[in-house]
From TrEMBL:
Belongs to the RRF family. Pfam families: RRF. It comes from Pelotomaculum propionicicum. GO terms for molecular function: ribosomal large subunit binding. It comes from the Bacteria. GO terms for biological process: translational termination. Keywords: Coiled coil, Cytoplasm, Protein biosynthesis. This is Ribosome-recycling factor. The keyword Coiled coil applies.
């Protein structure tokens, strides 16, 4: 029973890492990546639809994204959605494709991005610690019910702590990689 709780905690912590990775991928770091458009929703026939479900997104150059809609009538809506987004990129359309030139990041924008990224990493760490706390509470409840001994409780709590430390270290590694990517000129 206790092993199942720890396995569930590990699965939840790994989900947190995936969320942090997705958050980081959708942040502009001066390089073009299709993940930049992941959060953008387009009003497609009255339904909010992700851009990547309406168009082919390619990266022909390091600082250029090309969005080629499968349905040409969606082009103006995609353009409007990109303009409304917080990317700070002006789309250039030629009637068949939208070109997004990714500008060089200013030092001020880099600093702002660093704050946001550190905040996202901290949110990830907090989520992992919350999983640890909940898991430890479940283990203590088992111990009170007499399902595990006090020694087993201590051993399981140590196991949960090691897992937590490992996952938080992974989040910190993701953070430092993203920091280097953003601060690279």
């Amino acid at each position: 029973m206790a092993k199942e709780i720890i396995k569930e905690a590990e699965a939840n912590m790994k989900k947190t890492i995936e969320v942090v990775k997705k958050e980081f991928a959708s942040m502009r770091a001066g390089r073009a990546t299709p993940a930049l458009l992941d959060k953008i929703q387009v009003n497609y026939y009255g339904t909010p639809t992700p851009v990547n479900q309406l168009a082919n997104i390619t990266v022909p150059e390091a600082r250029l994204l090309v969005v080629q809609p499968w349905d040409k009538t969606a082009l103006p809506e995609i353009e409007r959605a990109i303009l409304k987004s917080d990317l700070g990129i002006n789309p250039a359309s030629d009637g068949t494709v939208i070109r997004l030139a990714i500008p060089q990041l200013t030092q001020e924008r880099r600093t702002d991005l660093m704050k946001v990224i550190k905040k996202k990493a901290e949110e990830g760490r907090v989520a992992v610690r919350n999983v640890r706390r909940d898991t430890n509470e479940h283990l203590k409840a088992y111990q009170k019910e007499g399902k595990i001994s006090e020694d087993e409780l201590k051993r399981h709590q140590d196991e949960v702590q090691k897992l937590t430390d490992r996952i938080i270290k992974e989040i910190d590694n993701l953070l430092s990689t993203k920091e280097q990517e953003i601060m690279q000129v």
